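Now for our target.
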Amino acid sequence: MKCPQCYQENFPGEDYCVNCGFALMDADLNKPKKGFGALILSDTVEKLAPPEPLIVKPDSTVKEAVELMIKHGHGSVLVVENEELIGIFTERDLLKRVVNVRLDVSVAKISEVMTGEPQSLSDSDSIAYALNRMAVHSIRHVPIMSNNKVSGFISVRGMLKYISEHTLERT
């Protein structure tokens, strides 16, 4: 993507120009005026009705986290300490960091296998921005922050539901 301020060529998905620091996510570059493209630029993450997050403490065991995920049918739990988001534990983390190395789930602490400092979004971010962040960072679960506190999460499943509701014709 070419920066509209300094004309530097940037990698697709960059939030800021690598040359001048211009905010590319807000650049008015051929924004669609109607249809689904316009909808995802105007609708915010709040429109996805992010569900309540599943929250565990850093000293919770992997077993406790997985049982919570199974009970609620979610693919992730957020790791919170003193009301601050410090990590996320996902199905992908379970496969790569637990199953792959044969950790004992009843002993291993979630803080040992979580993804620290996860990407997060605000409930006022556009759906287009959320989709971009998920694609650029190869993530499927994203915590939603409101007033510096975890307020929910979105997932690929929620995005697909939104897309299907707004693009597929009803018969």
In short: The chain has a mean pLDDT of 89. The radius of gyration is 18 Å.
